[in-house]
DNA sequence: ATTATTTTTTAGGTTAATCTAAACTTTTAT
DNA sequence: ATAAAAGTTTAGATTAACCTAAAAAATAAT
């Protein structure tokens, strides 16, 4: 059984490594874990001793099979809980992260099984992120940033990349939501900002920065 | 902010003290906390320094106002979660305790507020135990053990006292549930066991022990 | 190719919650 | 009333997760 902290490390390693693609450095891990590099070294040795990650001094860590599976289980729980909070309890999408960070550590297979059923087996969370299945498999859907989508063509908002509360609140305020149908109607040369039509109803300006964090499908 | 462990101590003190009526001894606390008396002494000093309990050497501890309030908040959360697990997720009443022990420590006022609303402001949990209101107030209902109820008179099962999983499973099996209408139709002299009629439909024998753990109202 | 800089690790220490063993109170039993 | 038993506290260790400061390795810059 993993500790709360060990679980958080695995999750951070998963995200920082891009689902286990590249090695994660001590310093980046220290930053996301809000701790000191020296502490990371300690923990990384511990996880390595448990065969969850492969740790090589001065090089970084890589997720091993078991570690990746564990990380995916935690992500699964996190996203199921977020879905619950929004769909059932009426949280807004900018309010759920902190609470889900706690709920994801509850240990009960039965609970997650029943929660999944109660939510009718959702495949994405309120931010559009995919929910791994019980075995850790993820149904990836090809998405590109709205910033890279051709102008005048309709597309659908599928996910937010950086889901910080303030960004999410901003999106709500201007009327952008998951599944919204949008199209770029103008590009401002000066700063790369875009004028976007939402559901053929309203038009809003969004920064290049924001457009890079909105993932769409054609 | 209290630690997970501190919260559990407060809750245990609340229960062992009978809602704060009598002092709790180090040894009993050690037993329910599954730890050693020496560890209890340490923790009790800590909670005392935080003015949550009054600790007197060799005498025991008493809950102070703030400590009692905290304990009641945790109990509130525990019972709301149990209600959620049974009413919404389809857990049986013997499966919920362990999970609720974890969920009760989630820190989020908003979450409990919304959960309470989602459950439509329940006043008792699946075991018939009262759910404290947000300020910690409990609506006490006078109940007596079925064992002490007069024979032949109808009464209603309101709560279980010792809600161990095996007892709860046994109750389910013989058809006893919260809100069931029952009456004692025979008392066995030999061992104090009772023959009980449930909903005027079926008759079962229950031990004196069991009858003492079933709380009823007339 | 050295030197300087950055990154990472090691060494040694801290805190919360536990433990064991020994000392000390309180209670119980003669 | 005193001795034995039971209960409780103190003292000193341990473990997980962190820390700081110093040493070591890797990377970048002249």
What does it look like?
2 copies of one chain form a homodimer. The first copy, chain A, has 218 residues and is an alpha+beta fold. The longest helix of chain A has 23 residues, at 65-87. Helices cover 41% and strands 17% of the residues of chain A. Chain A has 3 domains: 4-63, Winged helix-like DNA-binding domain superfamily/Winged helix DNA-binding domain (Arc Repressor Mutant, subunit A); 73-138, Orthogonal Bundle (Arc Repressor Mutant, subunit A), CATH 1.10.10; 144-217, Ferrous iron transport protein A (FeoA) (SH3 type barrels, Roll). Chain A has 8 helices and 8 strands; from the N terminus they run αααββαααββαβββαβ. In chain A, the strands form 2 sheets. In chain A, strands 3-8-4-5-6-7 form a 6-stranded antiparallel β-sheet. The first copy, chain A, binds a DNA duplex (30 and 30 nucleotides) through residues 3, 5, 25-27, 35-43, 46, 57-58.
Q: What topology does this entry show?
A:
2 copies of one chain form a homodimer.
Chain A: H1 4-16, H2 26-32, H3 37-49, E1 53-56, E2 60-63, H4 65-87, H5 96-103, H6 109-118, E3 144-145, E4 154-160, H7 165-174, E5 181-187, E6 194-198, E7 202-206, H8 208-212, E8 214-217
Antiparallel strand pairs in A: 1-2, 3-8, 4-5, 4-8, 5-6, 6-7
Chain A binds a DNA duplex (30 and 30 nucleotides) through residues 3, 5, 25-27, 35-43, 46, 57-58.
């Amino acid at each position: 059984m993993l500790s709360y902290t060990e679980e958080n490390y695995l999750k951070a390693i998963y995200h920082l490594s891009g689902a286990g693609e590249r090695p994660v450095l001590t310093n980046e891990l220290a930053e996301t874990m809000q701790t000191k590099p020296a502490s990371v070294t300690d923990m990384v040795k511990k996880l390595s001793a448990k065969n969850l990650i492969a740790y090589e001094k001065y090089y970084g860590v890589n997720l091993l099979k078991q570690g990746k599976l564990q990380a995916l289980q935690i992500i699964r729980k996190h996203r199921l809980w977020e879905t619950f909070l929004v769909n059932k309890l009426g949280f807004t999408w900018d309010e759920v992260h902190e609470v889900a960070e706690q709920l994801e550590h509850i240990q009960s297979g039965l609970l997650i099984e029943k929660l999944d059923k109660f939510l009718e087996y959702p495949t994405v969370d309120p931010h559009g992120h995919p929910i791994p299945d019980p075995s850790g498999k993820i149904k990836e859907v090809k998405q590109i940033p709205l910033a890279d989508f051709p102008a005048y063509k309709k597309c659908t908002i599928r996910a937010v990349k950086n889901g910080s509360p303030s960004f999410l609140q901003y999106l709500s305020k201007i009327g952008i939501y998951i599944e919204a149908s949008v199209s770029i109607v103008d590009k401002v040369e000066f700063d790369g900002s875009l004028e976007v039509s939402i559901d053929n109803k309203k038009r809003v300006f969004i920064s290049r920065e924001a457009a890079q964090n909105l993932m769409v499908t054609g």
